[in-house]
Write a structure and sequence with these properties.
- The protein is built from seven helices and five strands, in the order ααβαβααβαβαβ.
- Helix 3 packs antiparallel against helix 6 and helix 4 crosses helix 5.
- The protein has 208 residues and is an alpha+beta fold.
- 38% of the residues lie in helices and 15% in strands.
- Strands 1, 2, 3, 4 and 5 form a five-stranded antiparallel sheet that branches.
- The longest helix has 21 residues.
- The protein has a domain of 122 residues: 3-Layer(aba) Sandwich (NADH Oxidase).
- The radius of gyration is 19 Å and the shape is globular.
- Bound molecules: flavin mononucleotide.
- Flavin mononucleotide (FMN) binds next to strand 4 and strand 5.
Length: 208
């Protein structure tokens, strides 16, 4: 069956709405140091990756991509974290370098999100492309949550380092946005209190 047909079809019952809201409400960040094996297997990853493609994408530009960093490649990322720390602080201690390197080995599943933000005169501006990437990421996090995995988004100064640009072959106009980590939670924080809609929803008056 082709992907277009698969994604069509209404999901319109109240129960589906409640289920989706519960799933969304259940997602919470679990820091990468608390994400352990098992991570998603190949068929679960396929579901997670396909969820990204359901993101709104103005002009079907596919302005984002994800680079998976499997276990054997983590050492290369560790080298980047260490060299980025060295660029920022050549006086950093051996312990600080070790800590920077160790971050590359957390979480069984690790990906870098890369967005092609383009240039100011592009018809679909960078903010829309970034938003599309955010939707793609959230889609993946939600499917991972539904599959029983925990997740985290992390950033950090190394994302803007020349060494990271080289490692991930970032092209002109591309930006590394964040890492996406997935795995099994060893520990969760209590659910975060979410802001009430009246803090972020308002209604335009019919008259001035
Ligand atoms: C692009 C992006 C990068 C983030 N990077 C970090 C990070 O490096 N460290 C961190 O503690 N939180 C980071 N966060 C925030 C967490 O991912 C998380 O959203 C926040 O802690 C709220 O928790 P919740 O996801 O459980 O609601 C980042 C969020 C986004 C959207």
């Amino acid at each position: 069956m082709d992907a277009r047909v698969q994604t069509a079809g209404p999901v319109d019952s109240a129960a589906s709405g409640q289920w989706a809201a519960a799933l969304i409400g259940h997602r919470q960040t679990v820091l990468p140091k608390r994400l352990v094996e098992p991570g998603p297997d190949a068929s679960q990853l396929d579901l997670i990756f396909r969820a990204a493609a359901a993101a709104p994408d103005h002009g079907e530009l596919l302005p984002w991509r994800f680079v998976v960093i499997p276990a054997p490649a983590r050492t290369r990322l560790a080298d980047v974290f260490a060299s980025s720390l060295w660029e920022r602080d050549p006086q950093a201690t051996a312990g600080q370098f070790a800590q920077a390197r160790e971050k590359a080995f957390r979480a069984p599943m690790l990906m870098l999100a890369v967005v092609r933000t383009g240039s100011a005169d592009d018809e679909v501006p960078g903010c829309e492309r970034l938003l599309s990437a955010g939707c793609a990421i959230q889609n993946m996090l939600l499917v991972a949550t539904a599959l029983g995995f925990a997740s985290a988004l992390t950033s950090g100064k190394a994302l803007r380092s020349a060494a990271l640009e080289r490692l991930f072959s970032l092209q002109a106009g591309e930006q590394a946005v964040c890492f996406v980590s997935l795995g099994t939670a060893t520990k969760r924080k209590p659910a975060r209190l979410r802001p009430e809609p009246d803090r972020y929803i308002s209604f335009l008056e019919a008259t001035p």
